[in-house]
């Protein structure tokens, strides 16, 4: 956090002739087809500078930066998301010009004074009042943990509700709208389905938004318990108890939905949106390689990184759940796979922090096939042909084979052309494209969901 620069640039010796770049600085990285805004906050600390970063389009603020150094107008620091920044504070003190990135993936970045230079992105599908249904804000108390889930239940007029749907967010700390890059796909989907006669509950994840609770030791089993409690709440409401109850989960939320459907008998349907169907180690490894490929890194480096991550995930699965992985183990695996020079391996501290998280360990232990083969209710799986995070061809293919082999009576897998992991109409499908797209949720995908539901849920009398 603090600088190791000589005393000439410490706060005590700073002067008008030898100032520090204090305050707010903002700029944006060209990442693929998207502009990613970044705001840097620099302030005085004991012995030098300290700082934090904001990613406004990600709705991430106050993120810590590491290894912050400033001397003779040169600034450098390290981040988890974009690697290392090295820049020069210009003589006119109006810009910090440099490069933000790591290894072979460098992105120019010019920072200028100020932090409010980025207007909200255009998101035309975000619902606007008035709504032809009622929104009820509710809370659900956890009976066995000090946490409360908060969310919004969209209710069509009484007597017109066809079914009740619980939306389950993907991985990470997500709010009830699954907000990402100012897109709110779960709000868009809930609005669409409520207009079609479905009651829809969407929830802030534990410890996010209005939901309370500790996320530091959260596992996938905790997420499973939270969603099961939410289902029990819906089932226990007198106004909804007699209605069909189902699930729609996105990405890792689809896996949670599968786990629930495998153990509960009161579900009328389940819809997987870009859900995984294979052991998660290979899925995570391929996701990282796709992200590296999008930045233009040499294919040989990506191949070595793939070998390294596959070996690493296999090693993690052999460790006891609470046994931490060490830097020495990571280095040994890197040497065996020829990946010791890749940028990701050089950031061992970040790897250790990530791979020792209880949630990540619990995710690696999951094999979706264990749950898919036990689902009894009608099942729909949608995937986008341009999904680079959970490639649809392989995931839908595995789902189709497993359910056909088990002779499931009512399942369907559909690949939707030109849609990405978020079900946006896209060009490349890369994560860096998400923010640049104005569409939040392709109407073709929402129509497919509604039509499939309408065929299986009776019309209210």
What are the salient characteristics of this protein?
single chain, 3 domains, Rossmann fold, 461 residues, Lipocalin, disordered N terminus, 8-stranded mixed sheet, alpha/beta
Structure description:
Helix content is 30%, strand content 26%. It folds into 3 domains: 7-113, Beta Barrel (Lipocalin); 134-279 and 366-456, Alpha/Beta hydrolase fold, catalytic domain (Rossmann fold, 3-Layer(aba) Sandwich), CATH 3.40.50.1820; 280-363, no CATH class. The strands form 2 sheets. A 9-stranded antiparallel beta sheet has the order 4-3-2-1-9-8-7-6-5, with no helix packed on it. Strands 10-11-13-12-14-15-16-17 form an 8-stranded mixed beta sheet, with helices on both faces. A hairpin with a 3-residue loop joins strand 6 (74-79) and strand 7 (83-89). The longest helix is centred in the C-terminal third of the chain and has 20 residues, at 299-318. The chain is globular. It has 12 helices and 17 strands. The protein has 461 residues and is α/β, with parallel strands linked by helices. It has helices at residues 185-195, 220-235, 252-263, 280-294, 299-318, 327-337, 343-346, 348-355, 358-364, 369-372, 392-405, 443-456; strands at residues 23-31, 34-45, 48-55, 60-64, 66-71, 74-79, 83-89, 96-102, 105-113, 134-141, 148-155, 163-168, 198-203, 245-250, 269-273, 379-384, 411-416.
Largest sheet data: 9 strands, antiparallel
What amount of the residues lies in strands? Answer: 25-35%
Could you state the order of secondary-structure elements as H and E?
A: EEEEEEEEEEEEHEHEHEHHHHHHHEHEH
Indicate the structural class: alpha/beta
Number of helices: 12
Low-confidence stretches: 1-16
| Euclidean distance between termini CA atoms | 65 Å
Q: Can you name the CATH architecture of the largest domain?
A: 3-Layer(aba) Sandwich
The CATH superfamily of the largest domain is identified as Alpha/Beta hydrolase fold, catalytic domain
Class of the largest domain in CATH? Alpha Beta
CATH topology category name of the largest domain: Rossmann fold
Number of strands: 17
The pLDDT mean sits at: 87
Dominant shape: globular
